[in-house]
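TEACHING EXERCISE
Course module: macromolecular assemblies
Task: Read the component lines below, then compare them to the predicted structure of the full complex.
Student: A.B.
Group: 4
Components provided:
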Amino acid sequence: MQPTADKIIEDIQKKAAQIGRPLRFMELCGTHSQTIAEHGIKKLMPKNITLVSGPGCPVCVTDQSDIDIVVGLALAGIPTAVYGDTIQVPGNLMSLEEAKRFGADVQIVYSITEAVESQKEKSNLVFFGLGFETTTGMTAWAIKEGLTVYSAHKLFPPAMQALLENKKIRVDGFIDPGHVSAIIGTEVYQKFNIPQVVAGFSGEDVLVAINVLLTQILENKSRVENAYGRLVKKGGNKKALKLINEVFEVSDAKWRGLGEIKNSGLKIRKKYQAQDAEFVHGKLIEKIKKEIRPKPSACRCGLVLQGLLEPKDCLLFRKVCTPNSPQGACMVSVEGSCNVEYRYDN
Amino acid sequence: MAIKNQLATVDFDGIEKEINISLVDAKIGEYVMVHAGFAIEKMDDEYAKEMMGYLGKK
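Instructor-supplied answer key:
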């Protein structure tokens, strides 16, 4: 049994006072951002601890060009299937939701299995595969079942590396993601020389994680600790990793906010090119890319994703940008920092 | 609860749903973590029971 929340908070206060200097901890998973907001954890923190959100919202980090390409495919008459949040992300031309209003066939799915079912009736259906290792295994499974996919899948550790290399971002510890870690394990994080802890998703889990990071700082150590051992194993989910490796290969990828990161994306292997939308619709995608006209926007989602700007410091936040009328991806997704901040009013 | 091909009937504290178990080696009676319709990993038995205990006390 874990100690009570009160006891953990007392411990956090003691350790933070002992350390004295200001500390910034970054949670790398959108669901952790939600837990922190839901339980008002930021308000429970001692003055010298700041919690910042990182690039852990899969919909948010998906590059604008990928959104534009899928919108283009949908407008060209190709049936598309997407995870719910994605439909509202504003594209340079329009969002998938607007494309649907113009008559495009855009299906929202909760699980990729629904897209596999739909493809039995619509043979040219394209699924918009996005997200980190948690959903990539599912996409790999679906590709093997015959589903055609446009892959914007990303690997999580290269984004952590990019954050650590950016001197503008000062972080004293990472709260590593829960479900991503269930797939990739904890060993992969050991190359990063910073205090880290893999955490579960309850309020107490996050408090325990913060306490663990403080202990490491007090001891002047940088370890990877697993506070989510009931789910996350050192080597991860070998079966899922094998499936991902069988279907995907590592490639460079563009991230909203972080730009292009070497070896941070996953493209579909040649063996499965008949299910790769980039191969099947190659010419059309080239044409869509040429026609993309960047639309000026004051949205600062890119900075929010790097922990460089708080949602409330964006000029659009709450004024013209709301979950009902999102101006950018960070307000669209329920895991996005702006959406979370809007709903929980911290 | 029941497994047929890659689909397992999972009991979410009373609500039964079909979940894809292609990514894990799960047996009947084991606890799994579900994400977007897939079991992504098996849960530690003792912890899962403890959680169910909390849910039951609600």
